[in-house]
What we know:
The chain has 280 residues and is mainly β. It is 12% helix and 47% strand. β2 (51-63) and β3 form a beta hairpin. The radius of gyration is 19 Å and the shape is globular.
Amino acid sequence: MDTSKPNSSQGYGKPPWVFKGSALYQLHLVKAETARAFIPKDFRLVEAFGYTLGGFFLANYEDSPVGIFDELVVIAGIVWNPPTSCAWAARVLVNSDQAFLHGRKDVGLPSRVANFTKSAREIPGTKRSRFGGFLNKIGMSDSMKSCLDVQIKEMNNHTAMDLCSINLTTAATAPSSQNDAGRWMGPAIKMSLPSFSGRTEHNPHLLKYSCQIECRVRAVSPAKVYGPFETTSEDSGGDDKRNLSISVMLSKPILALEFNSLQMKVEAPTVVPPQKKKHG
């Protein structure tokens, strides 16, 4: 495998790049025809009955090479990379200029600058929120009976355009004692999430990189996602892929995992050499 690396902006320093915080990883059934709009034609989409596995990764990093920032990764689907498969990002939204530039240039991601507006509200009759990690980031204890709404607006030529709103409202029974706290946060796990990127106007190479994750994980009920109130061709700036990214976010959720005490190490991407065509 070719281990050559694309030119780096040096903004993040030497890899691996380490991120710490909390996240929600939500898997959706995405229509294969929607996913194919983002995936290079030389990749084979992993699909069944006209659907692939996509979704989103919503994270709040309290520590990173560029400090605190929020990130929303819209995952178009899964592509086949023998002997495994890898996720393909349709769109990446961050509220950090440095993270935006790093994502575009160094990692070959379809990164955009966005505003993340978080608002918490109390809901009468609900129990402790299962999304305490996010509530803590805005100064609220997860012992409060509250939910968190995250509104993401993508910036385009200094204009903020609604992308989606994510409603974290699911409640669950709180641990009965301090000794239950570890089980309540879920088991500690380690896993690797391989991904492809690149083939963009800012980084034409086909890249592959790996995220090594350590965290406490637990299954939660999927968050509710709402699209823009009104979407017109003018609102989207003529960006069809933006509208398709919204379709991915609004597709049917099947599983949601909450990551707490998250530590993610991202290795520098490597350039994947073109596959040689077999001659019969």
